[in-house]
Amino acid sequence: MWTNRRESLTSSPPNNRLEIKRVSVAFGRNLALDDVSFVIEASERVAVIGTSGAGKSTLFRAITRDIGVSGEVRLGGKEIHSLSKRGLREARGLIGRIHQSYNLVPQLPAGVNAALGDVGEMGKTRTLRTFLIGPEAALAKRVEAAMERVGLAGMSATKTANLSGGQQQRVAVARLLVQKPGLILADEPFAAVDPVTTERVLDALLELNGGGASLLVSLHDVELAKRFPRVVALKEGRVAYDGSPESLSKEKLNDIYDGDMETNPKESDEPDEPTGPDVTRLKGQDGISAH
Amino acid sequence: MASPPTEYDGQKSIGGAVPRFSWGSSLAILIILGLAGWSYYGTQFDILDLLTNTEPASRFVSEMFPPDFSLATLQATGQGVLETFHMSFLGALIGAIVAFPLAALGTRNIETVGASRSEKIVRAVPYHAARFVLNVFRSVPDILWALVFVVALGLGPFPGTLALAVHSAGVLGKLYSETLEAVPSRPVEALASTGADGFQSFLFGMLPQGMSNFTSLTLYQWECNIRSATILGFVGAGGIGQQILISMNLFDYPKVATLVGATVIVVLVVDRFSASVRKRITD
């Protein structure tokens, strides 16, 4: 059985360790992931880069078993694709996801969307209670705190569809804060939000990472990716680079992006070593832990 | 050396909004024309006969006027209208209540990744059972259900209401399940991928996204039921249709005019009301 999630956040046990071993995913004849292997240690922060179609989103879907794979995906030692239905649910309860397109339920109040971070912990009675009359006091308190943390205090009752894109992304982050997952998969979380929201979201993700959660973020913005202690680059479904941002040379980037880095607006001509506030390395320079 | 400029043929490369000629579309048009001609002869369709032989129709219409506005007729009309309203409303409501769980079972489960073959088969049983029941409910027309219930329960609005309820359940069940299958899947998948079970994904992901459509479809079914309830009276299943049939048999055409006029007004009022509520819900 999985250890208690909240307990895992305080003591950072090794059950957040994500091991991807020789994973391949095919859509028809197209190989979306081709023999991908790497390990993410508990509390590690990793940015995943690559062109559109390189396999970043497929990788995330493979980790949560939204799609079938050949190979192994182990979270805390448990092979995700061999788990029973119940085991899978428990494993997924450890994983928090955040997407470019928010993927909230637009008809629900923002607070209920945030409260659904706790959905994996709800029994039938709590589920029905939350559906009919809203979350109980303890959960409501956590939701309010999370909404306040992302700058949406007092907006829990607002219909999610009436919020702006940036606000919806913050609700998605509030959901993560309520969930307190052991592993966060953030798929292009900053692609559709403004720079201020980007920083807010990043802060919240780092807070969770500081609490022990591993963080795997797919990014188009190479400059932002370089603020992570470790970068994994995918190219045509294969791992093209796995290492520190310092070692990620311009030639390597050109190879990853098929030479498009010359014109990539997200990549500046700055030297590899971060120098200014915009490229300040995220805390926890060791590439493993933020604390 | 530059190659000589070629004239750009926009018509060929882009084309208009109408699909281009293809053997497939030509064959489809030919089939449609063939079926239309066959049906034309099969039904002895004769528009000239309709336009030239107007005497019986005009006599029937002229005998309806002036409509009968006597107190007895107005009372009978009021009672028939109310009965039709009750039948249609209760039929739609019971139909919706029966349809909902069947639709939930009859909605394809999105998550089968990693499920074993036997697990998939077990999950498919309630799906196919619910779909089968809905298909039976829907494929038998409400007037046939009315005949069945009239034979079983006798004349009156009760068998008519049951007939409408069963048929509505079939229609709404299919439409509800299609609505559930068509809701954006990503929010539902996002819930499932963070540990929600099937029930939770349904409750928080699919249901809220389908709810406005459910309401709209139910209101539309009520509109349909009002029209159907009028016809069901012709087989003795209550409502204003039963009074229309009796008056027709007695050649009391002025009373028929009053009853038909009242039916038209009720149908129009319910249509307008339902349409405005549906517009509010979906906007």
Task: Provide keyphrases for this structure.
heterodimer; A: 291 residues; alpha/beta; six-stranded mixed sheet; four-stranded antiparallel sheet; 10 strands; disordered C terminus; B: 283 residues; mainly alpha; MetI-like fold
Structural class of chain B, by secondary structure, is: mainly alpha
CATH superfamily of chain B: MetI-like
Greatest contact pair?
A-B, 38 and 24 residues
Strand percentage of chain B: under 5%
| Strand residues, percent of chain A | 15-25%
H/E element string of chain B?
HHHHHHHHHHHH
Summarize the main sheet of chain B. Answer: none
Q: How many DSSP-defined strands of chain A?
A: 10
Mean pLDDT score of chain A:
83
CATH topology of chain B: MetI-like fold
Please give the oligomerization state of what you see: heterodimer
Number of helices of chain B: 12
Shape of chain B: globular
Describe the structure in your own words.
- The complex is a heterodimer of chains A (291) and B (283).
- Chain A is of the alpha/beta class.
- Chain A has helices at 5-11, 56-63, 85-93, 110-115, 124-133, 137-149, 165-179, 195-210, 222-225, 250-256; strands at 18-27, 30-40, 45-49, 70-75, 78-79, 95-99, 183-187, 214-218, 230-235, 238-243.
- Chain A has a 6-stranded mixed sheet, sandwiched between helices. Chain A has a 4-stranded antiparallel sheet with strand order 2-1-4-5, with helices on one face.
- In chain A, helix 7 (165-179) packs parallel to helix 8.
- The two termini of chain A are 27 Å apart.
- Chain B is mostly helical.
- Chain B has one domain: MetI-like (MetI-like fold, Orthogonal Bundle), CATH 1.10.3720.10.
- In chain B, 77% of the residues lie in helices and 0% in strands.
- Chain B is built from 12 helices and no strands.
- Chain B has helices at residues 10-13, 23-42, 47-52, 55-64, 71-105, 117-139, 142-153, 157-182, 185-192, 198-232, 240-249, 253-282.
- In chain B, helix 5 packs parallel to helix 8.
- The mean pLDDT of chain B is 88.
- Classes of the chains: A alpha/beta (291), B mainly alpha (283).
- Chains A and B meet through helix 3, strand 6 and helix 5 of A and helix 9 and helix 10 of B.
